[in-house]
Specification:
about 425 residues, 12 strands, disordered C terminus
Length: about 425
């Protein structure tokens, strides 16, 4: 007993316990705020989740320790929280801001500092400062204080790059996402000006691995939170709940935000359960095991991707036409494409018939058009304005399937060759 300082051990244990409880409260607060943003600030929808993901992937490339990555993840989730103090008309504005509006929106960095100081000051006091300075530029031209280079905390420099990647690459109601080539060119153009060169180098590696190649979005040592849909299929009925999935390698859970809906407490007749996670303006589907623990909350375990390891799919942004048996057609956006199914986005004001057979006419960048027969197997309300639909192919001819795979491979080869060429030029210059 003399070899150990029991007071120090108990103090440390109490500190860690208080941190865990505090983080649980932070997650619950974030879910509440995010649900508000989803309905009132649609331009910010998914932005925090995407930035958090890019931030952690870049931090891993830069070999930041696990505890720093955990803090960075929370900072990324809350980096734009200050915008709740900015007029909705400015945050949601479609088009360029006036000088007066730009000055007002710049205040969100200071607002974010004040809000997160109340949330994190007792557990992670660095986070409010990282958020305050996430718009500082490497050359000193940023805001709010004009810091430069090493005056800017390294985590803030990572947030700066991750934020820009998502702003450029994610589609908005008022703009199309830039291509991977344009994204890389913009990062290179602003290296040493807006961005830390080391952070950009790490970001380019992440872009190659996470945009070009298939992603395992849950592969991480950091706790993560995602918008999600939990689908429970019993002998009695099918129950679908919108909410948020909190992923942890030790204990994951789903929190439903459908507070007015039914909460399934007894799962004795459960046939299967699936979790649909939304990120990067696309969907990822998992088979899971579920245990209800309290009203609207479910423990999630044994998480298995629906797609096999050798499955080939790619994120995309393609114009398409969905044609019903009646001949009525709708213009939709294809977000993800594989050899067996696709995901498309469409206005959710008129839900589509899931019992009918459709035709999907897709137009690719090279002008080739393919018609794919299929059915809608599920849909997910991503916001008050649109929904994601999973469209499974039915009776696709071998010739059509071959053409489809050629388009997928062609897209992957283009992206890979471009990024390899870019890395070769950079290495040669170095």
């Amino acid at each position: 007993m003399n070899r150990f300082n029991l007071f120090a051990i108990y103090s440390y244990a109490l500190l860690k316990y208080n941190q865990i409880i505090a983080i649980e409260r932070v997650f619950k607060f974030f879910i509440m705020i995010e649900d508000y943003l989803k309905n009132n600030l649609p331009s910010m929808r998914l932005h925090a989740f995407n930035v958090a993901y890019w931030t952690i992937e870049i931090a891993k490339k830069l070999n930041l320790p696990k505890d720093e990555r955990e803090k960075l993840y929370y900072a990324a989730l809350f980096h734009d929280i200050g915008k709740i103090n900015v007029k909705n008309s400015i945050v949601n504005k479609e088009g360029p801001l006036t000088p007066e509006e730009y000055e007002e929106i710049k205040e969100h960095a200071e607002f974010g500092y004040v809000i997160t100081r109340e949330l994190f000051d007792n557990i992670y006091p660095d986070i409010p400062f990282w958020i305050k300075w996430h718009h500082e530029n490497y050359d000193g031209s940023g805001y709010p204080e004009g810091l430069k280079k090493n005056e800017i905390p390294f985590p803030s420099r990572i947030l700066r790059v991750a934020n820009v990647i998502d702003v450029l690459h994610s589609p908005k109601s008022y703009k199309k996402p830039v291509t991977v080539k344009e994204l890389v060119e913009e990062l290179k153009r602003c290296t040493g000006k807006d961005f830390d060169p080391d952070v950009v180098d790490a970001a380019l590696d992440v872009i190659n691995e996470r945009i070009v190649l298939p992603m395992d979005i849950l592969k991480s040592n950091v706790e993560k939170i995602f918008p999600a849909l939990l689908s429970l299929r019993t002998f009695r009925d099918v129950y679908n709940f919108n909410g948020y999935f909190v992923f942890n390698e030790k204990r994951s859970y789903f929190k439903s935000t459908d507070l007015n809906g039914n909460s399934v407490k007894d799962l004795w007749d459960l046939q299967s359960a699936s979790l649909v996670v939304e990120i990067f303006n696309s969907m990822y589907e998992y088979e899971v095991e579920v245990i209800p623990v309290e009203e609207h909350t479910y423990i999630i375990s044994n998480i298995r991707p629906m797609e096999k390891k050798n499955f080939i799919s790619i994120l995309w942004e393609l114009e398409a036409e969905l044609i019903a048996a009646s001949g009525k057609s709708l213009n939709v956006k294809v977000k993800r494409l594989s050899g067996d199914y696709l995901l498309f986005a469409h206005d959710n004001s008129c839900p589509l018939d899931m019992s009918s057979l459709y035709k999907m006419k897709i137009k690719f960048e090279d002008g080739e058009e393919l018609i794919l027969n299929g059915i809608i197997t599920y849909y997910y309300n991503a916001s008050t304005n649109y929904a994601f639909y999973k469209y499974a192919f039915v009776n696709i001819g071998e010739t059509t399937r071959d053409k489809l795979f050629k388009q997928i491979f062609k897209k992957q080869i283009y992206l890979r060759s471009f990024l390899k060429k870019d890395r070769w030029i950079k290495n040669k210059a170095g």
